[in-house]
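Sanity check

After download, print the first record. It should look like this:
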Amino acid sequence: MITMQQLVAGIDIGGTNTVFGLVDEKGNILLKESVATEHFPIPEDLVAVVCERIKKSVAAFSHKYNFVGVGIGAPNGNYFKGTIEFAPNLKWEGIVPLAKLFSERLNVKAVLTNDANAAAIGEMVFGGAKGMKDFLFITLGTGLGSGIVANGELILGHDSFAGEIGHVILFPDGRQCGCGRKGCLETYCSATGIKRTYSDLLMRHPEKNNLSGKVADAKYIYDKAVQGDTEALEAFNYTGDVLGLALANSVAYTSPEAIFLFGGLALAGDFIFKPTIESFERNLLNIYKNKIKILPSQLKENDAAILGAASLILKELNEFI
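Expected structure tokens:
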């Protein structure tokens, strides 16, 4: 008798693209595709296109796999309601019952949370947090996202919007944040944040403020740091110093075993990890010192969105608890 393996869909809704795939219970990605989110001003239309592609692929694997569910990572995703609520980077307005739309079309259970939470579960199921019950997951991309796992469970809060470390205010009346407030962590510790820091540092030296038409994005700043550029190195040191302080403060709430850094900025290696760890240890309460590791995520950058969303439904179905 042939035992059917479990197969799930992982879907990540982004402001520009929606990536989706089929994932088996071992974390193998059997399908990976994407569509332009911005081409679908009506969410039902995007759901219809994605579901048709998923159905076609599921049929091709039906001899070996049992399709059991859908996991969705999305901005402002409400796990309890299965909705996207007033997402600032999407054309969709108001509250969208996204989990219900996918569940009805695919005839399987669908669960949804925000993208950083989904990636945190992905780290626990398929990455470096295997076997850990308490950890923080930090995404350093355009903004700063976070997922908090305590006692083996994702911390959601009473309304599913817990864990927004990126919107902790570190500097009152500091940099303007997209959330409408000032001084949020993500305005300093993100790809956008380090670009702002680097630009501010260059203002001190107008003779250096000529990028020959290149945009000073995080990759550009990293390349300059590799070359030994003083302002680029200072930008990384400042970013790490602020991030380390914020993470040291976060530790006091859940006492995690480890903190995982993910995203483009985390790929800078020691340029970001060294100052972050130094600041982290310097600012920790004594009872936490030298106990908590700050580690790079073990999720592959190109697969993390799909694996994170897929792991969300796998955990929901008790495959990995």
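If your output differs, re-run the checksum step. Summary of this record's structure: The first strand starts at residue 5 and ends at 13.
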